[in-house]
Amino acid sequence: MCGIVGYVGLHQAADVLLQGLSKLEYRGYDSAGIAVHQNGILTVKTKGRLADLKEKIEKTDTCLFGKIGIGHTRWATHGAPSDVNSHPHSSENGRISVVHNGIIENYMQLKEMLEQKGRKFVSETDTEIVAQLFDDCYNGDMVETMINVISQIRGAYALGVLCSEHPDQIVAVRKDSPLLVGLSEKENYIASDIPALLEYTRDYYLLEDNEIVLLKQDGVTLFDLNKNEIKKEVFHVTWDVSAAEKDGYDYFMMKEIVEQPEGLRKTIFPRLCDNGIQLDHISLTEEFVKNINRIHIVACGSAWHAAIVGKYVIEKISRIPVEVDLASEFRYRDPILNKNDLCIIVSQSGETADTLAALREAKKHGVRVLSIVNVVGSSIARESDDVLYTWAGPEIAVATTKGYSTQLSVMYLLAVYFGKAKQEISLQEQNQYITDLKKVPEDVKSLLELEERIKVLAKQYAQSKDVFVIGRGIDHAAAMEASLKLKEISYIHSEAYAAGELKHGTISLIEDGTLVVAIATQQTLFEKLVSNIKEVKARGANVVAITPRGNEAIEKVADEVFYIPEGNELFSASSTVVPMQLLAYYIAVERGCDVDKPRNLAKSVTVE
Ligand code: F6R
Fold first, then answer.
1. What is the mean pLDDT of residues 307-318?
2. Cβ atoms 608, 103 nearer than 8 A
3. C-alpha 417 – ligand 1 centre gap (Å)
4. Which atom of ligand 1 is the closest one to the Cα of 300?
């Protein structure tokens, strides 16, 4: 949801800003802009992608030589994508320039107040209000003015501000939207996310809400809301720059699909030890686990799909009741939470606004929060009582793949850990689960070999109008993820259905040639699923089945079968998702879609 970069240093700011934004386009890509200080503030912005911004700079022969500036790539909230709604936004007199990620909720009242003072607005955005308000409050001191401004605005924001009267300073702040500071010798930066700056520095300050940053070439000072200086530890990033590069793949999504076995290995293996499962340094003692009354797993999107798989697996292995909620619902539904409950928050980015708010809601009720997060040091990770990281590495493609599959693997680890702690499973059963878990990365790897067959299938179904994905139990949860992958990147309408539910209405949509993908990994439900396949076949559907080896009988009813390796069926979602990721990918490629940046989406959803 919008990417922000700011730079002050020895080089041309425009180059650094454009380079940084190129790594943040996954956060929004409907318009882009930069503002550079060079004898006053010069702004170039445009509707469209970063490539359009670069073209505009070249075509208009704009000479950008300033060494301090701010940049933005937008995911529209207030006002359609257009040149005028693009960031940076300026105060009417041009003194102040602002980039913003988030939503200013009281922008209408503030706009009215500023209009009464005679200020004129040109855009439909909430951000322009911040620029005008900053100018209105300006007292010559950037930090004091920022403190005054944030005492008046409500909502979520990461802000970077440039002032024509301070050619050496950027002031920035965050509240409920991510922002970090990059530190280097005689050069300093702000950005929404680490990949934007990885090429320049590995040292960062991870900002907390309401910490104000004064960025200058020779140093960074942090302040609290009373203008007291704050000291902060430097966070050193150890991952490789190439982890955030495409490495010769056409799209990040394919690279990330292929990286899944490695991410799974890194997530699972270090947590296996001689006597079972060791969950990093988290403080869930056996005593605590024994007394857990109920687990609430809360997440959005694909992370929510991983949570549903988690419910099946945790309940089955540990017999602890699990409720799964969408974060956007949980936070407002006044959930019944008991002090002996455990809340598990799942998020790849660790910054999703609704998920973060759900975490805070759980903590407000005194419930212990364990989060499953990919981005180290993200807000959710920092605010949780315990964190289990998914070691997938940076995920850049908007549609998650390795983020989701590593989340599943942490669900499995937790289920076995809880099961053993509660003595619901014996030592022998635990060891068998561990043996099965160790096989997951290899199974996923073997499924990548289906690529060529799936390419052919993708050509055949690329022009489908509707696709249905059906399954029962865990397979239904896996079907939801499969269906989301397809619709979000290929724009084909797709629905996931619990196979037994289809005949209660939706089956009326099946017509000649409709593609139905049937996931059938649960042995006790296999025959029932076969009956459901027959029902859709009888109405003209073409059925592609995904099932473990050994279920060859399915070839009698399905038009095409993809086999996954035999293994523990509780862990099957890790395998069944792979052919579906590949199918979604190749259908999207076949349809000429921009796989990594699907329309209307953004990677990190930092607005409600
Ligand atoms: C879909 C997708 C989204 C995210 C969702 C939650 O491919 O990526 O549905 O899963 O926006 O994001 P995180 O996990 O970052 O909280």
1. 98
2. yes
3. 26
4. 6
CA of 603 to the centre of ligand 1 (A): 7
Collapsing DSSP states into helix, strand and coil, what is residue 464? Answer: coil
Does ligand 1 lie within 6 Å of residue 392's CB atom? Answer: no
Same CATH topology for 243-425 and 447-593: the answer is yes
Run of H or E residues at 402: helix 402-421
Crossing angle of helices 402-421/301-318, nearest 10°?
20
What CATH number does the domain located at 447-593 have? 3.40.50.10490
Looking up tokens 């922000």, which residue turns up? 4
Q: Is 530 left (phi over 0), alpha (psi -120 to 50) or beta?
A: alpha
Verify whether ligand 1 is closer than 6 Å to residue 352 (CB atom). yes
**Digit-coded pLDDT (tens) for 166-193:** 999 999 999 989 999 999 999 999 999 9
- Distance CA(532)–CA(85), nearest Å, equals 50
Rounded alpha-carbon distances, angstroms, from residue 28 to 189, 217, 300, 599 = 20, 28, 18, 10
Give pLDDT tens digits for 550-566. 999 999 999 999 999 99
**300 Cβ below 6 A of ligand 1:** yes
Please state the atom number of ligand 1 nearest to the C-alpha of residue 401.
7
Is any atom of ligand 1 closer than 6 Å to the C-beta of 302? yes
Residue type, 62: T
Average pLDDT score over the chain = 95
Nearest to 397 by CA among 605, 180, 598, 192: 598
349 Cβ below 6 A of ligand 1? yes
- Backbone dihedral region of 92: left (phi > 0), alpha (psi from -120 to 50 degrees) or beta? alpha
Indicate the pLDDT class of residue 239, thresholds 50, 70 and 90. Answer: confident
What spacing in Å lies between the alpha carbon of 347 and ligand 1's midpoint?
7
> 3-238 has which fold?
Glutamine Phosphoribosylpyrophosphate, subunit 1, domain 1 (3.60.20)
Indicate whether residue 606 lines ligand 1 (CB < 6 A).
no
Identify which of 70, 383, 27 has the alpha carbon closest to the alpha carbon of residue 194.
27
Indicate which residues carry an active-site annotation.
2, 603
Q: Does residue 132 or residue 75 have the better pLDDT? A: 132
Strands annotated E in 435-583: 466-471, 493-498, 515-519, 542-548, 560-564
Residue boundaries of the structural domains of the chain:
3-238, 243-425, 447-593
Taken as a whole, the chain contains a residue count of 608
- CA 301 – ligand 1 centroid, Å: 5
Nearest by Cα to 584 from 461, 406, 498: 461
Mean pLDDT throughout 574-579?
98
Best of 252, 302, 380 to mutate for ligand 1, by most ligand atoms within 8 A of CB? 302
Residue 303 near ligand 1, beta carbon < 6 Å: yes
Q: What is the mean pLDDT of residues 547-551?
A: 96
User: How many CB atoms are closer than 10 A to CB 453?
Assistant: 13
What number does CATH give the domain 243-425?
A: 3.40.50.10490
pLDDT given at position 522: 95
DSSP codes, 162-226: EETT-TT-EEEEEEBS--EEEEETTEEEEESSGGGTTTT-SEEEEPPTT-EEEEETTEEEEE-TT
CA of 556 to the centre of ligand 1 (A): 37
* pLDDT of residue 263 exceeding 80: yes
